[in-house]
Design goal:
Two copies of one chain form a homodimer.
Chain A: E1 3-6, E2 13-16, H1 24-30, E3 59-61, E4 69-73, E5 87-90, E6 93-97, E7 101-106, H2 120-138, E8 145-152, E9 164-170, H3 175-191, H4 195-206, E10 210-213, E11 217-220, E12 231-235, H5 247-267, E13 273-278, E14 293-298, H6 305-310, E15 313-315, H7 319-328
Parallel strand pairs in A: 2-15
Antiparallel strand pairs in A: 1-2, 3-4, 4-7, 5-6, 7-9, 8-9, 8-13, 10-11, 11-12, 12-14, 13-14
């Protein structure tokens, strides 16, 4: 029987139609075989010895010469830091120059590595680069929103194979980001609590969608998952922004993230995916109604006209089944 | 130079990065060749003589035996009309049974036809089927929203090649639909006018993004296009719902829609696309602040982590260039 479910925080609805759905094994069966990557590629701009093909690094770990993680301005940036932020009218339409910051986080020297296969320490260093860059970018008074994301594979919108993620910071806070924040504020005003804290507690109480329950983090397939095997990682403690994560927590997050990605990698044959870190807008890092989190979306389903038109996603795999499957995956 | 642009009605922002972009000819060049479809397919449930493979038709034109258009309940419906609409708590999460209506509009007997190649009369009959079904479904007191959409090709989320579109009607009005309506209401209260009427007038005044300007309809690539070659068709007269379209207007719309789709078909080598008809919620058909329209989205770009995370779409083709290109396409 199909079922509507609502995301407690954003008020978005999804439709679960598990009886139309496929078993997890079907997803694996129908995926095209992935050709293995070489460990090094001469013409890859992110491989060692090709550092001259990127712009000057903003951040390196442990050092510029022998780097493990390297952050560079995006050479093909969608936004440019040199522009003004003034908004102007084009007739009665609103426009602004494309001011913003776009950076690339090169996650590892090896061309064929991926967070699912890295060590916890390697993933920790990637997350530390994110945190450091988000802290630095947040000092820019013209920036209001920092989005950190990773596109894995062609279906997830990347053309570069070398393991990397991206940071895009904008002066603009769009409705897609603002509306859920307004919902969270209304919830706080009505119930006196962060809705995300309550959502995480409820997921832990119901238990069946949990993938990993560590000391400070919970990874689960959310009650109102929009697509098959959607995973989210929330800090259990109330923190509105990722920049507030401390050194101990970041190691723990690296372990939870790596394990979640490894469960997807081995369970679903290295699927394409996007992950995103959502944080409070700049200046709202200490607010009581917002809560940072990570969302991981394997690119298995294709959103069609109904999803685009209504915003209601039809999900053919129940999150309970997805979580059970992911818990049972053997990580090699 | 990149540019932010805002959708006047929804307040959503996009980033235009035309200098990173490709010329329209590049989109065509890189598309995989499409294999031609047969005119008839033995095992296609929507081809004539296979009527028994679908559920009983709800609507046929001109007659059940010799049909040109045929509407049937979706055999693999995501929602079911027999369920209750009561919402219930699962712990502190909200859920509802999957009540709703899901229908398939079989647009033509020929397996290899498509609206871009149909006659205006054939497209008119498809639109009349939409109108008739939307009117009928709107009488159901439990339904609040009717979404009419078409998925063309695998990248647009369809697996069935036979020309068809779909109707899904839900008891739920999700935030994705409600928020723009609230924006339009605020605009109406502030400026005393329908924001969509003003948007269409402004597009007609600026002219450069117009594809077709007919007596009662305007087809254009909107100022804040989210993806390359996004097209929209708006009625110039204020009407909140598609069910209010009259017999003369529906022929004119068929002509504008067919021509727009043909320009995409011949200009971009029959790209996959979604189209959606957006109407007011049931009961709001006479409201002064809402305005129905069609949006056509060729599936050329892949939304990635930034789009999913921020809701800001990066569009590599300026709508001015897209419209110019589409105006110049030779329709065979």
């Amino acid at each position: 029987m199909p079922e509507f479910r609502q995301n407690k925080a954003t008020k978005e609805w999804v439709i679960l139609t598990p009886e139309r759905g496929k078993r997890p094994v079907d997803f694996v069966k129908n995926l095209p075989p992935r050709k293995p990557l070489p460990a090094y590629k001469d013409d890859c701009p992110f491989c060692p010895k090709n550092e001259h093909l990127t712009l000057e690094p903003i951040y390196t770990y442990p050092s510029p010469d022998r780097w493990q993680v390297r952050v560079v301005p995006n050479k093909y940036a969608a936004l440019q830091p040199s522009l003004a932020t003034t908004r102007s009218w084009v007739g009665s339409f609103l426009s602004a120059k494309g001011f913003g910051i776009a950076e690339v986080v090169i996650e590892h020297p090896r061309h064929d590595n991926t967070p699912a296969l890295m060590t916890v320490d390697e993933v920790t260093q990637v997350l530390k680069a994110y945190r450091q860059r988000q802290i630095e970018i947040s000092k820019n008074e013209k920036i209001n929103l920092v989005t950190i994301f990773r596109n894995h594979g062609a279906r997830a919108g990347t053309s570069l194979e070398h393991p990397h993620s991206q940071i895009i910071a904008t002066p603009i806070v769009p409705p897609h980001v603002r509306y859920p924040m307004e919902q969270a504020l209304q919830y706080y005003d009505q119930f006196g609590r962060c809705v995300y804290c309550e959502m995480v507690e409820e997921e832990l109480r119901q238990e069946e969608r949990i993938i990993i329950d560590s000391q400070n983090f919970a990874a689960f397939c959310p009650f109102a998952s929009r697509s098959p095997f959607e995973c989210r990682i929330y800090p259990k403690m109330h923190k509105a922004s990722f920049i507030l994560i401390d050194d101990e927590e970041i190691v723990e997050l690296a372990s939870v993230l790596r394990e979640t990605l490894a469960r997807l990698y081995f369970g679903l044959n290295n699927p394409d995916y996007n992950y995103i870190i959502r944080s409070a807008t700049i200046g709202d890092h200490d607010t009581r109604h917002l809560h940072w989190y990570m969302v991981i979306i394997p690119k298995i389903a294709t959103p069609a006209g109904f999803e685009i038109g209504s915003g209601i996603y039809i999900n053919t795999t129940s999150p309970e089944e997805a979580a059970r499957f992911l818990r049972e995956v053997e990580i090699k």
